[in-house]
Amino acid sequence: MTDAPLTNARVLAIALPIVLSNATVPLLGIVDTGVVGQMGAAAPIGAVGIGAIILTAVYWIFGFLRMGTTGLTAQAIGAGDAREVSALLSRVLLIGLGAGALMIAGQVAIMAGGFWLSPASAEVEGLARQYVSIRVWSAPAAIALYGITGWLIAQERTRAVLVVQLWMNGLNIALDLWFVLGLGWGVPGVAIATVCAEWSGLALGLWFCRAAFQTPAWRDRLAIFDPARLKRMIAVNGDIMIRSVLLQAIFVSFLLWSGGLGDVPLAANQILMQFLQFTAYAMDGFAFAAEALVGQAVGARAAPAFRRSVILSSIWGAGICVAMALAFLLFGQAIIGILAKSDLVQAEAARYLGWMVLAPLVGCAAWMLDGIFIGATRTRDMRNMMIVSAAVYFAATPLLIIGFGNHGLWIGMLLSFVVRGATLASRYPALERSVS
Fold first, then answer.
1. Region of residue 427 (left: phi > 0; alpha: psi -120 to 50; beta: else)
2. What is the pLDDT of residue 28?
3. Which of the residues 108, 227, 258, 343 could staple to 266 if both were Cys, CB 3.0 to 4.6 A apart?
4. What 3-state DSSP class applies to 6?
5. pTM greater than 0.85
6. Which residues touch 19 (CB under 8 Å, ≥6 apart)?
7. Residue spans of the chain under pLDDT 50
8. 226 Cβ contact partners less than 8 Å away, ≥ 6 residues apart
9. What per-residue confidence (pLDDT) applies to 240?
10. 95, 15 in Cβ contact below 8 A?
11. How far apart are CA 320 and CA 309, in angstroms?
């Protein structure tokens, strides 16, 4: 476990680079859309959008690799088990590269499933297939980077994560401009730019991990393939994957139910969902700080450090949530005006802005406790409480929609946050007792 004192400065040193890193993510999507938009046709824009969604949805399944790796690595650091820290890096690289290779091999099936779920015109589908068939070749790099990111966060090296993200997005943007606007490669140019950026990002990430490769542990087969360690890793990641699938099901069903209310409510809800996205980007940094610090304390069996990690990271997380709620209250109308040009959509979104003011406040506990439980690798509790939350959401929301329309839909969404936070909080005392 690191000897650095547990201070607010230490929490901020972990959190702020993640917040800045997240801020660069929307910029890349804007540039991707902007450069193909210069081609003067609608089909390339739709093709890049659909192709990116298909691949992102598959990559998202492997998001467990980031979360599970952070908790397990932080605990190994806290326990002073350098051999396991190196072995974990090797494991996640093998999983990432292997999963990416399977995606390349199964790209035909991936595209078939994607276009079945999201049908498009023949022109858009043809261009999107070009995009996916090129970009899928960086799948091993993209998935392996999830593991590297989690490994670096566990060591509180979030500045390295920021540098990797800035490098990848910056290179991607530069190559977008060159390949599409300069060389006229069109949609394939956007895909090639992303492939180059993601493989270079993996190379840079590995460079930041170079100290692990200077010891023999990273290639110690007995450590890497230790049955007990593998079993635990599979259990942790399996629980996180189930939890994440259920969470995604809530968001997907929310949009589907929004569509049933009409085009204008659907558009308004999609605008308002960006408010939740803004909050998540800001909260990630402090949830990640909790993952790293809590994990190290659990590994060291240091109950006072565990409690202080929880308190400090949660205070900052709560402060961010209050700040976001105030920002939405004061500037929500202006944000809606920027995101939507239609007067009808603006007026509809404004009707439900109050729920966006409440969302950070009622969701804060769920977001922070997620980070705490990930750091402690108490993923079974996370999975089970997510099951309860999803069950309440899917049982209550259709009735709420019947009674209150779109207001009922937003009540259902916020109810899922409350239930998840409350049920995880009910498991927290047992978690704290287990540390000591």
1. alpha
2. 67
3. 258
4. coil
5. yes
6. 281, 282, 284, 285
7. 1
8. 87
9. 93
10. no
11. 17
